[in-house]
TrEMBL record:
UniProt cross-references to HAMAP family, sorted A to Z: LolA
CDD domains with a match to the protein in the record: LolA
SUPFAM superfamilies per record: Prokaryotic lipoproteins and lipoprotein localization factors
Organism (species): Seongchinamella unica
Entry similarity comment: Belongs to the LolA family.
Gene: lolA
Subcellular location, principal: periplasm
Extent of the signal sequence: 1-21
GO cellular component, one term: outer membrane-bounded periplasmic space
Protein name as catalogued: Outer-membrane lipoprotein carrier protein
Gene3D superfamilies (UniProt xref): Lipoprotein localisation LolA/LolB/LppX
Binding partners and assembly: Monomer.
Superkingdom, natural source: Bacteria
Length: 207
């Protein structure tokens, strides 16, 4: 579970699917995302085995998102990890291992699901094939061929994002349910500041 979650949040992009672009679906999704300026709440993640419904792992935690560049994803069970995009750097703090990894945000071409929610909607038109797969369900397949995932599905209930589903190259499926979603309480860039704790091992990939 840890491997799949970290690949997702650290921004490995999705693999292209064989599909026809649906311009109306793209524009409808962009319209829904335009209403998302900030979000916070809790999440529950379930990982399933290849091509069946066997649950292989569970995790839960909290998230925050502020357009256009700020994301916080904190796993508190069963591991204890924090991933933060502060507009300049992408931080990963593994509290169990007491390690901190930092990468520059600038120049990264990969997009994670939460970064798609927070990012430039022009990228949806340029880099993804979007199709509707049901009421409030949108499947995104990127046009590149260098990614770790086959598909991302965004699920909306009453025009509010409620879940995401990621399928990787091994056909493992990660379902992320967003709970107690709050789009009204104000967030600021200060809510995404991160300072490495004293004594942690630091691995900076921008030096």
């Amino acid at each position: 579970m840890k491997k799949i979650v970290l690949l997702m949040v650290l921004g490995l992009c999705l693999v292209a699917g064989i599909a026809r672009s649906d311009n109306s679906a793209t524009e409808q999704l962009i319209g829904l995302l335009a209403g998302v300026q900030q979000l916070q709440g809790q999440f529950r993640q379930v990982q399933y085995a290849q091509e069946d419904e066997t649950v292989t792992a569970n995790s839960s935690g909290r998230f925050k998102l502020l357009k256009p560049h700020y994301v916080s994803w904190e796993i508190d069970s069963p591991d204890n990890q924090l991933i933060v995009a502060d507009g300049e750097h992408l931080w990963h703090f593994d509290r169990d291992l007491e390690t901190v990894t930092r990468r520059p945000v600038a120049g990264q071409q990969d997009l994670s699901p939460l970064q798609i929610l927070a990012g430039d909607t022009a990228l949806l038109r340029e880099r993804f094939l979007v199709s509707r797969t049901g009421q409030g369900r949108f499947r995104l397949a990127p046009v590149d061929d260098k990614a770790a995932f086959k598909a991302l599905t965004l699920v909306f209930v009453e025009d509010r994002i409620s879940a995401m589903e990621v399928v990787d190259k091994l056909n493992q499926r990660l379902f992320i349910e967003l709970l107690a979603v709050d789009g009204e309480s104000a967030l600021t860039p200060a809510d995404f500041l991160f300072e490495p704790p004293e004594g942690a091992d630091l691995f900076y990939h921008d030096r």
